[in-house]
Design brief:
The chain folds into two domains: 113 residues, Fumarylacetoacetase, N-terminal domain (SH3 type barrels, Roll); 300 residues, Fumarylacetoacetate hydrolase, domain 2 (Alpha-Beta Complex). Helix content is 21%, strand content 24%. Helix 2 packs across helix 4. The protein is α+β, with helices and mostly antiparallel strands and 434 residues long. The strands form seven sheets. Strands 6-5-20-12-13-15-7 form a seven-stranded mixed β-sheet, with helices on one face. Strands 8, 18, 19, 23, 24 and 25 form a six-stranded mixed β-sheet that branches. Strands 3-2-1-4 form a four-stranded antiparallel β-sheet. The protein binds calcium ion. Calcium ion binds next to loops.
């Protein structure tokens, strides 16, 4: 079914909604009025309560089995069911919510019981995250950061062969809206030979795409590149908060540790592969002279349609901007087309050694910067490590984040002839160190 054939919903706020028109239908976990966390679908300004709808008899067959797997406030079992279940649920949801639906009256009669206002709900993590891996596939970010440290040799020689990643910390991933406590740690002040201990002075954000794993693999097996896309349940926005001064002192030789593990924020809605289908793109051709991916990372279909055209935005809201009623300052406008490796390549690489992936595992893409000013996905790049402070309309100046600053990530997909969809926000406000 083409999107153009069904563009309107009887849920008035869904039509033309920035993030959640009928064509998106992302899944999440929410609570309302102190209820236990439960699964729902975002539509316009509302959340469709999947569990209440199940009890009201609105699902049968494969869609019913799919919704049953979302019970209990975690989507892991639903992710495990894979694409067939997602598609069955999506088709039923479109049937329920399209303009002219025969069930319009039945759903509307139950009012907020089935369709509470999202503004009155609290969002939770959508799944139990057993493992979190952060990749580094944003080649512009890798080059920008590499240049700061190695002007003549910004990219290390493995970059174009290996989708670089490291194991992150799952226990401190939090949904949008969770405050960010400034971490404390060891740092090496410039010109000193011995570290000091105290609050991070170079707190930063990283703009990333989050990838939810669906069906996993048995330990010892691997997911081949041609099947990898089928193992992805959906996508979100991810802010990999980074303490640059702690990172600079601790990262050699094993990579980031405490500089990243204090919190990672994600947008709470899982945008499905089906919703993103119109916004798939060919993976951008590799520049002349770059090596071709090794065979286990190469698939023709993945190269032809394994990329995405998703516009990514970062906004900064400070106390000064708030006090003067000024709009948030846009720090970054970038796009997922700056990924050197596709999400399928990340999945194939992660499991090629027999490492087990499980439903509800989360990947970060790595910072997705573009090549130009205005497209950089971290303050480290924007201010060149603090050398070029930015000035805000409030008169405030920033090298890195200060207490009270709030970072807001957004994403949007647009294409002629299709309804635009978004991801919802991923926000976090910095609190002083304790
Ligand atoms: Ca990162």
């Amino acid at each position: 079914m083409t999107q153009t054939s069904i563009t309107r919903s009887w849920v008035a706020s869904a039509n033309g909604h920035t993030d959640f028109p009928l064509q998106n239908l992302p899944l999440g976990v929410f609570s309302v009025n102190g209820s236990a966390p439960r699964s729902g679908v975002a539509i316009g300004d509302h959340i469709f309560d999947l569990e209440a709808a199940l009890d009201a008899g609105l699902f049968d067959g494969a869609a019913k089995a799919a919704v049953e797997a979302t019970r209990g406030g975690q989507l892991n079992a639903f992710f495990e069911l894979g694409r067939g279940a997602r598609v069955a649920l999506r088709e039923r949801l479109i049937e329920l919510f399209k303009e002219g639906s025969t069930l319009h009256g039945k759903i509307e009669a139950q009012g907020a019981k089935l369709l509470p206002l999202a503004a009155q709900c609290t969002m939770h993590l959508p799944a139990k995250i057993n493992d979190y891996t952060d990749f580094y596939v944003g080649i512009e970010h890798a080059q920008n950061v590499g240049k700061l440290f190695r002007p003549d040799n910004p990219l290390l020689p493995n970059y174009k062969y290996v989708p670089i990643g490291y194991h992150g910390r799952a226990s401190t991933i939090r949904p949008s809206g969770t405050d960010v406590r400034r971490p404390k740690g060891q740092t090496l002040p410039a010109g000193q030979t011995e570290p000091t201990f105290g609050p991070c002075a170079r707190l930063d954000y990283e703009l990333e795409l989050g990838i939810w794993i669906g069906q996993g693999n048995e330990m010892g097996d691997s997911i081949v590149i041609g099947d990898a896309a089928d193992h992805i349940a959906g996508f979100c926005l991810l802010n990999d908060w980074s303490a640059r001064d702690i990172q600079a002192w601790e990262y050699q030789p094993l990579g980031p540790f405490l500089s990243k593990s204090f919190i990672t924020s994600i947008s709470p809605w899982v945008v499905t592969a089906e919703a993103l289908e119109p916004f798939r793109r060919a993976q951008p051709a590799r520049p002349e002279g770059d090596p071709q991916p090794l065979p286990y990372l190469f698939d023709k279909r993945d190269q032809a349609a394994g990329g995405f055209d998703i516009e990514l935005e970062v906004l900064l809201l400070t106390e000064g901007l708030r006090e003067q009623n000024l709009p948030a300052h846009r720090l970054t406008l970038s796009n997922t087309q700056h990924m050197y490796w596709t999400v399928a390549q990340m999945v194939a690489h992660h499991s090629v050694n027999g490492c087990q992936l499980q439903a509800g595992d989360l990947f970060g893409s790595g910072t997705l910067s573009g090549p130009q000013n205005g497209q950089f996905g971290s303050l480290l790049e924007i201010t060149e490590g603090g050398k070029k402070p930015i000035e805000l309309a409030s008169g405030e100046v920033r090298k890195f984040l200060e207490d009270g600053d709030e970072i807001i990530l957004r994403a949007r997909c647009s294409r002629e002839g299709f309804a635009s969809i978004g991801f919802g926000e991923c926000r976090g406000k910095v609190l002083p160190a304790r």
